[in-house]
Amino acid sequence: MKKGKFFKLSSIFLLISAYTQSFFLSGFSFPDSSEVLSEENRLQSEYSFSEVVENSMPAVVSVIAEKRVEFTYTVNPFGIMPFSMDPLGIFGPRSFGFEEPQQRKGERFEKSEGSGFVISSEGYVLTNNHIVGGSHRISVVFPDGTVFEGRDVELVGTDPQTDVAVLKIKSVYPLPCLEKGDSDELKPGQWVIAIGSPLGFSQTVTAGIVSAVGRSEIPLPEGPSYQYFIQTDASINPGNSGGPLLDSRGNVVGINTAITSPTGLNIGIGFAIPINMASKIADELIDTGTVTRSYIGVMLENLTFDLKIAMGAEDLQSGIIVTGTVKGSPSEKAGLITGDIIYEVNSVPVQNVTSFRIDVSQREPGERILLSVKRGNSDLNLEIFLEEFLQKEIPVPEVVDVAGPWLGIEIRELDERQTENLNLSGKAVYVAQVRQGSAGHRAGLAQRDIIVKVGEIQIESLADYERAAELYKNGTKPLLFQVIRNGINHFTAVRTE
């Protein structure tokens, strides 16, 4: 060994020895086993979510909603449109004794799928308005395969302003439910878990952190107008909407609602409605079926850094600027004017326009609040009594089930000659048409299916089928249909409600 290397190694050894000796002389001691175990448990509870997921999963559901949508289409007697360039109608259909193309109305059924979660053992379920709003039929599927649909699922109420909706499952036994957390205590960097049915993959679990809180002014096609989102990088995709965002203890802190992405799929920017806001809305929907909001009738904008300087308000940490008031509103009555800067409500600082609007809207009509206002070089305290915000309602056309054949399927009869090639003796009945969205359509019955048996009744004629319809029309359990499809026996269960 070269002399230089020896001295270097000796120096390192002496240095390490000196540090080691100083640790022991200064009373250094290794942590005992209980401390190590405690730290191990803390890390285990922080980073392993399997127990939380196992306990939470039974209360997370898939939600399937069907909506009836009207549309207009053109019927042309010729099957072509050659007359659009004939403004005088000289060569139009009428000149040849034919009818003009006609506008007719039709309807189609659209299906939306999302998630939800049970919030009480009585069967109340939280989800998103954009999933179930306007639906005429809703199905709720539990992880064990149990399905509630039809009369067993009630749409209690929806609030498009916050995108919250409440369902009620009619169950004869208590249902598993999730515990509510406190979304006001969330901080960026905390672990969160999302459970839902993204892209149809039910009971999918993803995890991430809280990226930010209080997000607003997000341009989303489904709204909502009251935005105070939790932002998370837990993977959220279409189908997660309505599912729970959980903290590391398994408590619900939000409703997964939306993502922003140039592709329409997850890029790590997802948004959830804070559970504290959603719970208040849900309680009102359950109690009254509607949501009551307060307002003061004022137009506002945020106080930016440059506006602080320009308005001589550098001493304020935050605030909002009054840009106008509604005539006869509480704000006008209280004396607010354009240019006022509101910086506190009941001595609590105002952060921005969104938080102020949400704060006011969630208070009770008639409640008194005290606004701290900066007007020029003066500080004022203005007392305002809140009034109920009466939004002009847009009438929603009532969806009426058009009377149709039993289970939505039209039946025709085959005679003996027609059944010879089917290896059937005597007559038989087949499905001539299936009404879209009907019970038969949902069960998968299709045109040209030959019905062999319904329940316990063998079907060999229209009379047999009518007898089965009369016997089972008020049934509440799925009804077994045996059909022949493309020469092969096929069984399907049809819900008769």
Layout of strands and helices, then pairs:
Layout: H1 3-25, H2 33-47, H3 50-56, E1 60-75, E2 102-118, E3 124-128, H4 129-132, E4 137-141, E5 147-149, E6 153-159, E7 164-169, E8 191-196, E9 204-215, E10 229-232, E11 244-247, E12 252-259, E13 270-274, H5 275-288, E14 294-295, E15 298-302, H6 305-310, E16 320-325, H7 330-334, E17 341-345, E18 348-349, H8 353-361, E19 368-375, E20 378-385, E21 387-388, E22 409-414, H9 416-419, E23 428-434, H10 439-443, E24 450-454, E25 457-458, H11 462-472, E26 479-485, E27 488-494
Antiparallel strand pairs: 1-2, 1-4, 2-3, 3-7, 4-5, 6-7, 8-9, 8-11, 9-10, 10-13, 11-12, 12-13, 14-21, 15-16, 16-17, 17-18, 17-19, 19-20, 22-23, 23-24, 24-25, 24-26, 26-27
Quick rundown:
The protein is built from eleven helices and 27 strands. It has helices at 3-25, 33-47, 50-56, 129-132, 275-288, 305-310, 330-334, 353-361, 416-419, 439-443, 462-472, and strands at residues 60-75, 102-118, 124-128, 137-141, 147-149, 153-159, 164-169, 191-196, 204-215, 229-232, 244-247, 252-259, 270-274, 294-295, 298-302, 320-325, 341-345, 348-349, 368-375, 378-385, 387-388, 409-414, 428-434, 450-454, 457-458, 479-485, 488-494.
